[in-house]
Amino acid sequence: MKFPILTVCICGLAASSLPIAAQPGVSASANRAVQPEARITDRIIREVRHELVMLPYYGVFDDLSYKAEGGTVTLIGEVTQPTLKSGAESAVKDIEGVDRVDNQIRVLPLSDTDDRIRLAAYRAIYGDQTLGRYALQAVPPIHIIVNNGRVKLVGVVRTTQEKDLANLRARGVAGAFEVQNDLSVESPR
Question: Which of 58, 118, 150, 179 has a 20 to 30 Å separation from 71 between CA atoms?
Answer without folding.
Answer: 58
